[in-house]
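> run fold Transmembrane sensor domain-containing protein
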Amino acid sequence: MAKLVVLKFYGDLEYQGFRVTLEIGSDFAPPEIEISGKLPPCLDLATYLCQWQHKYRSLGMPSRIKPQEIIYDGSITTRISECRQKTKVLIDYLQRWFDSQEFRCINNTLREELKRNEAIRVLIRTDNPELQRIPWHLWDFFGRYSLAEFALTTTASQTPPKPPRKPKVRVLAILGNSNGIDVQIDRQLLENLPNAETVFLVEPQRKELNNYLWQQWDILFFAGHSETADNTGRIYINKTDSLTIEELEFGLKRAIAQGLQLAIFNSCDGLGLAWQFASLNIPQMIVMREPVPDEVAQEFLKHFLVAFSSGKSLYLASREAREKLQGLEDKFPNATWLPVLIQNPRVVPLTWRELSTQKSDSLRQLLTVLMASVLVTSIVMGVRYFGMLQPWELQAYDHLMQLRPRIESSDPRLMIVTVDEADIRYQNQKGMKRTGSLSDKALAQLLQKLEQYQPKTIGIDIYRDFSVDPNYADLITRLKQDDRIFAVCKIPADADDAPDGIHPPEEVPEERQSFSDFVADSDEVARRQLLYLTPPAKSPCQAENALSLQLARHYLLDQGIKADMTPQGDLKIGKVLFKPLKEHTSGYQAVDASAGYQVVLNYRSLRPQENIGETVSLRDILSGNSQINSKLLKNRIVLIGVTAPSTSDYWKTPSHNKKIPGVFVQAQMISHILSAVEDGRQVLWWWSGWVEVLWVWIWSLLGGMIARCYSKPEYLGLAVAAALSILFGICFVIFTQAGWIPLIPPALTLILTAMAVVWKIRG
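> ok
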């Protein structure tokens, strides 16, 4: 992307000098740097500029200006020598002016902020006619920066319409009055343009020219005689007629409205034409500032068209063609001074390729998009396969989980009895001897209290790897004989700081023992639910079923709903199939699927300040302070767990920003099963691998098509942002319906493919 340098000048050359504003930025973006400076008044510079112009015009070389009555003093050799002397004096004054102390901050900033290997467009914005006539290319800045070129522009401008895309570049070439000059070489050069459709008007009548201007053109070209008199430019379209820009105003406005991008006046004394034409907001023009000899005009046109049509920018093509005129300066002094680029500051010049869309180019671009999308999709899906995107995908999963509407309420089938720090102190105050967080006496009293409410199932989510005190024979009997009570143990796991595991309560029979193990991801978030596994042979805990599955299955079995395994080895409870996680499942691409039967846990989306189930503390039940409705509690699942931070494990969950006690995660797991089987609440689902690949490739293809259609960075950025917003919206809507489809991979492929296509097609 080219750097854009804008220099704004306010003042005059003779008396007050100029106030200068420098802006440095990039195309399509606000300026990054803006500073102010000055150029002092320089009356001598204005004088020598006029003297040089007089000497140049007195050379009397055959040129494309209207023949005038000019008196030539001395031989042509003498006149050339005098012109060169004035040239040296003018250059000397010009360099000293640019080196003035007041302008040094501008000079220094340009050299500090710009790199010599980057393309630079320099806009000279001024309405001062003397500054417009200065040979700006002699400023030593352009000598140091070989990829920089200047253009003149006025302080007032408007944005012209964007040109339509066409199969070829359309050129309207006006070959006007050619008396004493040769415009046939101009014609031959235009005829050889690649991918161009050129219409020639040879010495047209005014009506004919006007009619053609109302058509759609990309480039307007004029070769013939022209002049500027009293700041008004005039072209001679045939041997008898001449026209000003004002006399062609409506036709030229129509041409600009239909996308005219460039006007080239390969004729003499064109600054008057330029400023009149610029007032119509044409994007770009190239004119000759002084009378131009035939050979100079033809050489410039040849080199410019070759460079521009071969892919160089308008600015660099203009600079290259201008500098190649130096080889003619032995016969034509100051030939390199003549071409001037005029720029509308609200337009970024198009390249030759951007002026048209060839069928072959379109096909090539489509193939580029297709190949880029396939390549990027393959790379992204390959990277994903090895788990490198899993952290991002799981974070996106959490974000979607947190954005879900909070429309669900507590599960009415659950009641959670919590043991917090106050409950531990309560037991101590009552003289209850504790081995863990829950004493035998407290547990015995709790089970007796719960009995009156007739719960259907009781889960003790507290490790009790010790024997019950013989003094509590009733508790021993209840644990052994009450088939509603389930207890937990712990499978050995280094990741849980329990390498040896934890034994189950001795009093609870093996069929009512359950493991309480969770499987958390590397970021310690519990997104998966472990339903059953095969314990190691040396594990003190030999339970194969998770507590959540045991409690849910016992609760459902009482209602005649059984759990079975399908021939494919999948768990089916009632009519609901719980699909197990595989090694490569949606966002999980590096998961250990061999660690038991795992499913993705679809957390209940609770309203604010609402728990997964009705919650009551241990001390409230034991002291009789709880306001439990016995009718509502009947047939519920009661889960007993510790919430005291000193003794309880806390877990991160995708739907909460803070950790929650493990007993509440267990409750979520139980609710997950019951809600799916009894309420028809959907379990999380995902696509097969091939469908995911197709989904990702579609978005990659979309990114490539966006990059192909939008060339301007701001439009491209907006289009990509809109596509990403649509992608997120689709993924979120589907997630609210329990569908977990890829979000990060298609977003990456969309962006990367767009970047690849921009680099390949626009680069």
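The mean pLDDT is 90.
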